[in-house]
Amino acid sequence: MAIAQLPESPEIHKLPLHKYVDAVRWLPSISALGRYAVLASFDSDSDSPSIEIHSISPSKNLALASTYAPLSSRISSLKSTRFADRPIIAASTHLGSFHIMTVNPMDLSIESVAEEELHLGGASCVDLVDGGLDCVSVGEDGMVNLVSLGEAQLKKARVFDANGLVSYTAAKWASPTEFATGGYGFSLHWWDRRKPGGPVSQFKCDRVQEKASGIVQSIDIHPSRKHTCLASGSSGTIFAWDLRRQQEPIILSGVGMGEGVSSSVSDSEIWEIQYDRSIRPSNAGSRILPVMICSEDGILAVVEEGEEPVELLAEPCAINSFDIDRQNPSEVICSLEWEAIAILSRPR
C-alpha cells in the first residue's frame, strides 16, 4: 500500500479518556469563544453507556461539561446539527432505541426531547437533516423510519419494512425530502419521502459483486452534488454512485479492484467517510471531490480520485469515527479504540 505524506504534517493531540469512545462529533458552535465535542462513551467497569459534552480549550485540553446517562445500551450511531439557537443530538443504540436531545446553550446540559423503540434489534444508523428536526433511522431488522419533531408533537413514520429480509447499515440525507441507505452486498437505495412505498432507485456495485458479504458502513452526500452518493465499507472499499450514470460506479479504493484504481488506503473495514471540504481537488477534471476516511486498521487518510491516499494519522488500534469541523474544516476530531480521542489541526 503506497500512501503519500502531507507536505506539512498536522498538529496532533491525543487525549486519554479511560472510557471506550464509540463515536465523536463536533458540537455546532454555541459561542464565538467556546468549542465543544459530543462523545458517545462506554464505561466497561460499570457497564454504563453515556453521551458526554466536553469543552476543548485552545491548547486542546478536554473538560467534561455535561453527561446524559439514561441509555438502554451502547450507542451505535451519533449525529449532531443546529436548529434555531440550540445544538441537536440524535443517537441510536444496539438494542434499537432512538434518542433526540437538545443542548442548553446556557449551561450545556443535555435535555431529552424524544426516546422511542424504533427497531427490533440493533439500530444501525441515524442521520439528521442539516439544520432541521427530521431524522432517518435504519436498522438490522430492515426497517427505515422517519422521525420529525414538530412544534406540538413527535411524528413517526415507518417508510419501509423488509421484514428482516434486508438489513440496513448506513443512512444519509441528500435534501429535506431525499436520503440514501446502504446495506449488505455493497448495495445502496435512494428514497424520496414524496414517493412512498419503497426506494425510488437501487444500486449494487457490480465491480465488487465477488465480495458478496461486503457491507456499506458509511455514506456521505455533498450538498452541492446531491446526485452522487459516496460509500465506504469492507475490504477497504470506497466507491461513488452517480444517479445520472446508474450502472457506472466510480471506485476510489479497494482490495483487488483492478485497473484504474489508485492504491488501496486500507484492507480492512472503512468505518466512516466524509467529504473533506478543506482540500480542493488537485485534478480539475475529478468527478469526485476529496474525501476523508477512518479504518479498522487505524488509518485516518484523505483519498482523492486518481491520486495516492494521503495519510493523516496511523494508530496501532482502530479509529472508530471522526468528524470534520464545519466552521473550521482544518480541524478534525476522531475516536480511538484504545480509550482516547485525537484532535488534528491541519495547516491552512
Automatic annotation (TrEMBL):
SMART domains documented for this protein: WD40
Subcellular locations according to the entry: Nucleus
GO cellular component, one term: nuclear pore outer ring
Alphabetically ordered keywords of this record: Nucleus, Repeat, WD repeat
Principal location class: nucleus
Domain of life: Eukaryota
Alphabetical list of InterPro entries matching this protein: WD40/YVTN_repeat-like_dom_sf, WD40_repeat_dom_sf, WD40_rpt
Protein name: Nuclear pore complex protein NUP43
Lineage, top ranks: Eukaryota, Viridiplantae, Streptophyta, Embryophyta, Tracheophyta
